[in-house]
Specification:
The complex is a heterodimer of chains A (about 80) and B (about 500). Chain A is about 85% helix and about 0% strand. Chain A has about 80 residues and is an all-alpha fold. Chain A has one domain. In chain A, helix 1 packs antiparallel against helix 2 and helix 2 packs antiparallel against helix 3. With about 500 residues, chain B is α/β, with parallel strands linked by helices. Chain B folds into 3 domains: about 100 residues, no CATH class; about 200 residues, Rossmann fold, CATH 3.40.50; about 170 residues, Rossmann fold, CATH 3.40.50. Chain B has 21 helices and 15 strands. In chain B, helix 3 packs across helix 4. Classes of the chains: A mainly alpha (about 80), B alpha/beta (about 500).
């Protein structure tokens, strides 16, 4: 079961990536897009999959799964 | 594309993000009282939760702008709202960051701050601020906007960041270019680096006026602003020539105008520069029903026609007309201006025995003028009194007006018909077209009108105006009696039109 702290760490990790990409890729769209697919898009796609699941099957189970899975993808578990 | 700004650090970007979020927190009604000052992610979470709770397009537009530091395109707003809708509350931060990352990475300066403008009218003068060009639309902007500023109207002038990230403040040089065109404080210069003012100017629940036709890459964010931001957008409608008379236009112009209409369709009000221009936009608005849109209210405020005092002085000092009457044809050289028909009609008149000199004045691209100039040269070799003057200084043009018996302007499509209005303002009769904006401007008198697609009719009218002194005298009297319409009049009436409902 993901804790509140897990969520906060996950959010911070995604924000850190967002800031890093925004800083490094300022004005360089193509390079950003390449990097984006590795750094952000994949985990965010995963989030959307689980969010959709949450809608369909009830929030609590999917929420826990999403947080744990994303944390693993980000190497932070 | 802007160069990457390697000197900016992650910490500076996150700090700027934090400041942008703080700047819009109140507008979004987010409770941030207990959010620690150094926790950007917690602040973002509060704002995202607030927008998710009340997910209006305007609130999503503002949240996107604050997070990305970039004005969204229409699809960006739609996407953010969907992501928020589909997100569980703990995941809203991830949803917002995912929706904004691509746009945020487009910004050349991710460390921009943001200021909300809520009580002033935001006036977008991007082109005039950043370019030295000064014909048609630029003249209107540079005569009108300074009068709003001088008369104390609550306006905030903005341009756009170089990469189109959003509206920004003007530099001093740019303000000079817009507000002091006739009395510059700075030497003219090419577009300068705008890295100085990095603050995004974000209109919120206020009025936005577009007195220019925006550049192509700005149409998407402006369309989103008009459609979603909740701001009331008003535009000056010059004409629909790039679409309605696309033949003879550069295809890029037609494409740009089509995208411009994506802004217009979501505007609140459009003020045409003539009744004819307004009618064109009414036609467009009628078509919007097929998209389920009601479109903007449309009205007309005719442009000013005010020739400078020095123009009258130059005209008064001009040499007396010679024995051979002079006929002047003023206007930029492009197919719809119909100079070819004037040349053909003149040849008909010359062959019928008329004796007059014909002078064309106006610039144009090499492609547009090369054939025409060759034809004129051939006629000159054949003894015809015809000439072309390109790049003519204003003083010489005014002098030519003074020496002219009348002017000819038989354009096929105009938004206003400034060459006709200026000729009349100088007391010189005009032969012009019998429909649209030219019929409108000629209705006050001083003109003979013809079908501009009928060379014979143009030739017959030319011959009559060359020989019928009583007619010319009557036209001169009519022209002299047309009431002056000043830029002060136009600026005041335009403001009133925009203010019809709720401008400050």
């Amino acid at each position: 079961m993901a804790s509140r702290r897990d969520y906060e760490e996950l959010r911070q990790a995604v924000l850190d990536d967002w800031v890093t990409i925004t800083t490094r890729e300022a004005g360089r769209v193509e390079a950003m897009q390449q990097t984006l697919s590795w750094r952000v898009t994949a985990p965010l796609r995963l989030v959307r999959v689980f969010q959709t699941t949450a809608k369909a099957e009830g929030f609590s189970v999917a929420r826990d799964l999403a947080a744990a899975s994303i944390a693993r993808r980000l190497g932070r578990d | 594309m802007a160069a990457p700004t390697a000197e900016i650090t992650d910490a500076e970007v996150e700090a700027a993000l934090h400041r942008r979020l703080a700047a819009v927190a109140d507008a979004l009604g987010a409770d941030t009282a207990d959010v620690p000052a150094d926790t950007t992610v917690a602040l973002l979470h509060r704002l995202a939760v607030a927008v998710k709770a009340e997910p209006t397009p305007a609130r999503a537009w503002l949240l996107f702008t604050a997070v990305a530091g970039v004005f969204p395109a229409p699809q960006d707003v739609v996407d953010l709202r969907r992501r928020l809708d589909l997100s569980a509350e703990p995941a809203v931060v991830v949803a917002v960051l995912g929706a904004t990352i691509a746009a945020a990475a487009r910004a050349s300066r991710p460390d921009r701050d943001l200021v909300l403008v809520r009580s002033e009218v935001v006036v977008d003068v991007n082109f005039c601020a950043t370019h030295e060009h000064n014909t048609g639309i630029q003249r209107v902007v540079r005569e009108t906007v300074p009068r709003w500023v001088e008369s104390g109207r609550p306006v905030r002038l903005v341009a756009w960041t170089a990469e189109g990230a959003g509206m920004r403040e003007l530099t001093d040089r740019e303000s000079d270019r817009v507000l002091s065109w006739n009395d510059r404080r700075f030497a003219p210069a090419d577009r300068e680096d705008e890295s100085g003012p990095r603050v995004l100017v974000v209109p919120w629940q206020t009025d936005v006026v577009l007195p220019e036709v925006p550049l192509r890459h700005l149409c998407e964010p402006l369309a989103a602003l008009a459609a979603f931001s909740g701001n009331r957008v008003s535009v000056v409608g010059y004409d629909a020539i790039p679409l309605v008379s696309a033949e003879g236009q550069r295809s890029e112009e037609s494409e740009r105008f089509a995208h411009y209409l994506s802004i217009v369709k979501h505007a609140r009000r459009i003020v045409g520069i003539s009744e004819s221009a307004a009618e064109e936009f009414r036609g467009f608005v009628d078509a919007l029903a097929s998209q389920g849109l009601s479109g903007p209210a449309v009205e007309a405020v005719p442009l000013a026609v005010e020739v400078p005092a020095r123009a009258r002085a130059v005209a008064a000092a001009a040499p007396a007309p010679g024995d051979r009457p002079l006929v002047l044809c003023v206007g930029s050289h492009e197919p719809r201006k119909n100079q070819e028909a004037v040349l053909a009609a003149a040849e008909l008149a010359w062959r019928a025995g008329a004796d007059f000199e014909l002078v064309f004045v106006g610039g144009g691209s090499r492609a547009a003028t090369a054939d025409f100039d060759r034809r004129v040269a051939r006629l000159q070799r054949g003894g015809r009194a015809v000439g072309v003057r390109r790049g003519l200084p204003d003083a010489e043009l005014w002098s030519l007006y003074a020496r002219s018996r009348f002017t000819v302007f038989v354009s096929l499509h105009e938004g206003f018909g400034l060459p006709v209005a200026e000729s009349l303002a100088l007391g010189v009769p005009v032969l012009t077209s019998d429909y649209g904006a030219l019929a409108e401007v000629s209705a006050a008198g001083g003109c003979v009108t013809v079908d501009p697609r009928d060379d014979d009719a143009i030739g017959a009218a030319l011959a009559r105006m060359l020989t019928d002194d009583a007619l010319l005298e009557r036209l001169r009297v009519e022209a002299a009696g047309i009431p002056a319409r000043t830029w002060d009049d136009y600026a005041a009436e335009l403001w009133t039109a925009f203010a019809a409902e709720d401008l400050a």
